[in-house]
Structures are given as C-alpha cells and as structure tokens.
Amino acid sequence: MTDNTQKRVQSAKVRGVIDRVEDGGMAVVLVGDDEETSMDVPLALLPEGAGDGDHLTITFTLNKESRAEAEERVKALQERLSKRGDAGEKKSIKL
Amino acid sequence: MAQSRRGCGCAFAVLIGIGILLALVVWKFFWPWIEERWTKRLPPPSGNALQVHMLDVGQGDAILVIAPSGKTVLVDAGTPGNGKKILDAMRRYNVGEIDLMVATHAHADHIGGADEVIRAATVKNVLDSKVPNTTKNYQDFLLAIEEKGVTYIGAEPGRTFDLGDGAILSVLAPIPPLFTKDQLRSGGNEPNANSVVTRLDYGEFSMILTGDAEAQTELRLINNGANLTADVLKVGHHGSKYATSDELIRRGKFKAAIISASVDNRYGHPSQEVLDRLRAAGIQLYRTDLQGEISITTRGDDTYEIKAAREAAEDMWAGRAAQRDDSTRSGFVAYGDFGPAPKPKKSPEQRGRGASGGR
Fold first, then answer.
1. Residues of A with CB below 8 A from B133's CB?
2. Separation in Å, CA of B17 to nearest CA in chain A
3. Which range is least confidently modeled, A61-75, B15-29, B113-127, B231-245?
4. What are phi and psi of B143, to 5 degrees?
C-alpha cells in the first residue's frame, strides 16, 4: 500500500470484548486479538444490553469537520483573550 | 630597530587574539550566568521561606509555589477532576488565591483541572503557551479565563514575574519560531515541544520547570543560552525517555530531580533510560508515584530541604515499561471503508522499545 492510500484511510475497525463491568458501571474492554490493550468505557456509552463477555466491533472514524470547528472556536477564544490581556508587551510583571 | 617594531606588532596581535578568544569563551560559557546575576540583578532573598509542592495528582503535573512574600503560583493543574485535589492543597497550605497560573501546555494531564480551579478560586493571571488543542478541555480552560476575567498572558522568553521578597519566575521557553509538527520526532507533538519552560530563583536556590518539553526543546534552550543551571529539575514529560537528555543534565548540574507520574500509567513513565541518566549524574531522585507529594522549602541561602509524603515501597531507580503498541500486528478486522490495512510501522523506536505516550 502506498503512503497516499494510507492518507485516504478515514476509518478503522477493531475487535473488542467486554472483560468485566466494574463498580460504577465501567466496562473494561479488551482490544485486539491478543487483548493486551484495554479501555475503560462507561456502560452507558455501549449498546443497550451490553455486558460481561459480549464481543464488540469498535469503529474509529476521523471527524475532520468537528476538528475544524473546534480549531475555529479555540482560535476565536484565544484572540478575544489576547485582545483583552493586560500584560501587552510588558516583559517584567510584578505579581 | 625595524625588527623590534615588528616584534612589538606580533605581540600586540597575539594579545588581541587572546583577548578575542577569552571574550568568546566568556560569551559562550558564562554569559547566561552573568546575565542572570548581574544584568538582571536578582534581588536579595528576604530570608522568609519559599515552598514548592509537587502535588500528587497521578499521571499529570500540578506544582504549587508559595513565595516568601505569600504570592502564589500554580504550575499546571493535573488531569480533569483534579481541581478538588488542588483546592484541598491550597486550603492545607492556607493559600487563598493564585496570583499566577502557568499552563505549560494544552494537554489534559496538565490543564485538566485548570477550569475547576479558575472557577472555584481566585486566579489573577494565566500564562499560556498559546499553542492550541482542539479538546473541550482546552476550550473549557479558555472559557473559564474569559468568564472570570483573568488576565491572559502569552509565554515568551525573557518575561519575568516578580513574586516578591526576592523570588523571581522567568520564562525560558517556548522560543520562537515555535516548533512545527514536521520538525519533531515521530510521535512528538507541538504542545509538548512548545511547553512553557520556567526558572524559579530565590537567592541561592533555583529550579527548572519543564512541562513536557523533550530533548529537542532542551537543545534549543541550550543553544539559545538559557540559564539552565539549577539545584532542582522538575523532570520533563513525567520521565519520558524522549526528555531529560544528557546534554540538559550536563548543563543543568542539578542536585535533585522530581518526577510526577502515576503508579499505574501505561506510557512507560518514568523510563529506565531517564532514571539511568539521572543516577549516572549522581542526582537525588524524588517520585510522586512512589512517594506521594514532594515538598521543597528554602530560605534562599545555600540550603534547601526536600520532603516526601511517604517512603517509597519500591525501588526508586526502577523505571516503568510502556504498554506495547502492537495494533498493526493483530486485532484489526478491517481498515478504511474498508481498504487494506496500512503497512506495519517500521520505526525501531516504536516497535522495539514500545511507544511512550504523548499526552
């Protein structure tokens, strides 16, 4: 596969299994065939009825639109704060 | 006669040459020290106690500095949910407000609890690298600053904060032009590389606080002539193998080093490589993962005391192993929608030694 092909990849699927549900409704999901990686996922985020021993297919999808929106929001916030900042060019600030 | 004049000329030229050489040596090796001590003229210490508390916030940083004047600085605020721990520490040390909050960079293990602290306590100023992150956590941090009317200050080298009674906090990094992704190692990231690095001085005592800066940033600091020689080092990036280079250790001549990490982190923090480098340099080691909160007290003379909340039950010089990234080897059902899986990563660093987390 070429680098260009890799760049086009937008999603990935991975196998998971719910090893157990811990106190407080936190599901411990073992990821991958060797199950050496685990994720703690609140049970409320999993499909209804999911529980101990259930197998999952986890999909990761890049959401570029959401990222771009967040970047815009952060930039606007930083600009507002910087305009309002009192320090300006002052090098030495007495607290 | 003519010969004698020539002889005089040669001797004069040699003297000029030696003079230039001496000036170069002084400039190269002693200028940072001269600049710090003479040009900026650090004020004399009042003799009251300066306290630095490396709070035990698990896998993150939160450092509470209480200046001899009573002014306070909070460097980072741990992971989300750690605000309460920090507020508790403020109560324990009778700290009513934070005069300066330093956000070394926009990762959740450093600014995670910042919005909680800003909303619950009085924070007067925030110093930020201004290198953004797209997380809600970073947005919440900025929104809290806005809503509470906190002064928002960008970090730039040379900016200093006078904490009163002779204590000064100086910004050493980020040094412009800021690092960009293409300049960094594989797995490196801009928030870490452009961390706010500061230096705390009080009389004879000094400390370097590095955020998650790694070797590339350390090298830039050295080449920029930053004054890195200090008594204590807050070890960069929780002891990641990519930080705390031999070059920094040589330049810093540190006597003690403090690592903030959690006992159950999966990122290989602290790494065996860094612990070995610190041990080889004869540096006294402190770790929040094994000893809990670490506190430094000094009156600005040539002594300081470092106390740990508890004795370590494990070997202080044993590092942690990173969880292996073997995702390219197994477990993936399919890739894309849904094309072939990408090639396995070939980086020997990632495959052979395991990837340390870039949090």
1. 74
2. 37
3. B15-29
4. -65, -40
